[in-house]
């Protein structure tokens, strides 16, 4: 089910860690400082998240995350995306039952993409296919490595 962002309240301790529920939330964001600094977001503050089935390596879909969506994904065990069209958070599977259980999250070498490895329940695509790429191959000219 979609949900609107809730204002976070956090205090940053001397160690640099944040204490939920305190007023310094606006200064600290939901992510650890090192991760937040390493992420390269687009002009809308989003980063691409490639979702992959953890045991078969199937690429299931691509979604978009802001810092709050990534934080929710890393701390709840379920994948949360930010909808660019609806401008709200959505947790995969809340309406369809096709849940994505988080197994791991990695950032690429440039910090501009995430790899979210999941255990996918049911179809990953809103069209009902296992992946968002099933049956959507493009014609290409192939070459052989020398």
Describe this structure in words.
The protein has 146 residues and is mainly beta. It has a domain at 32-120: Phosphoribosyl-AMP cyclohydrolase (Ubiquitin-like (UB roll)), CATH 3.10.20. Helices cover 11% and strands 32% of the residues. The protein contains 2 helices and 9 strands, in the order βββαββαββββ. It has helices at 33-38, 67-76; strands spanning 2-3, 10-12, 18-20, 47-53, 59-65, 80-83, 88-91, 100-107, 113-120. The longest helix has 10 residues, at 67-76. The radius of gyration is 17 Å and the shape is globular.
How would you briefly describe this protein structure?
Homodimer. 11% of the residues lie in helices and 32% in strands.
User: Between the first and last Cα atoms, what is the distance in angstroms?
Assistant: 50 Å
CATH architecture verdict of the domain at 32-120: Roll
Output the structural class.
mainly beta
Main pleated-sheet profile: 4 strands, mixed
CATH fourth-tier homologous superfamily of the domain at 32-120: Phosphoribosyl-AMP cyclohydrolase
Shape: globular
How much β-strand is present in the residues? Answer: 25-35%
Number of strands: 9
Q: What is CATH's topology name of the domain at 32-120?
A: Ubiquitin-like (UB roll)
Are there runs of 5+ residues with pLDDT below 50, and where? 1-26
GO biological process, one term: L-histidine biosynthetic process
Catalytic activity: 1-(5-phospho-beta-D-ribosyl)-ATP + H2O = 1-(5-phospho-beta-D-ribosyl)-5'-AMP + diphosphate + H(+); 1-(5-phospho-beta-D-ribosyl)-5'-AMP + H2O = 1-(5-phospho-beta-D-ribosyl)-5-[(5-phospho-beta-D-ribosylamino)methylideneamino]imidazole-4-carboxamide
Subcellular location: Cytoplasm
Cofactor: Zn(2+); Mg(2+)
């Amino acid at each position: 089910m979609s949900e609107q962002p809730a204002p976070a309240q956090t205090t940053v301790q001397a160690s640099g860690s944040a204490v939920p529920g305190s007023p310094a939330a606006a200064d600290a964001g939901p992510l650890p400082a090192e991760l937040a600094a390493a992420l390269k977001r687009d002009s809308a503050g989003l980063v691409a998240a490639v979702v992959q089935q953890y045991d078969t390596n199937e690429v299931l879909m691509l979604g978009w995350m802001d810092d709050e969506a990534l934080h929710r994904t890393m701390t709840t065990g379920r994948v949360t995306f930010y909808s660019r069209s609806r401008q709200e958070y959505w947790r995969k599977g809340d309406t369809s039952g096709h849940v994505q259980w988080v197994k791991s999250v990695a950032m690429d070498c440039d910090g501009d993409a995430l790899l979210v490895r999941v255990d996918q329940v049911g179809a990953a695509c809103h069209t009902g296919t296992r992946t968002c790429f099933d049956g959507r191959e493009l014609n290409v000219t192939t070459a052989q490595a020398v």
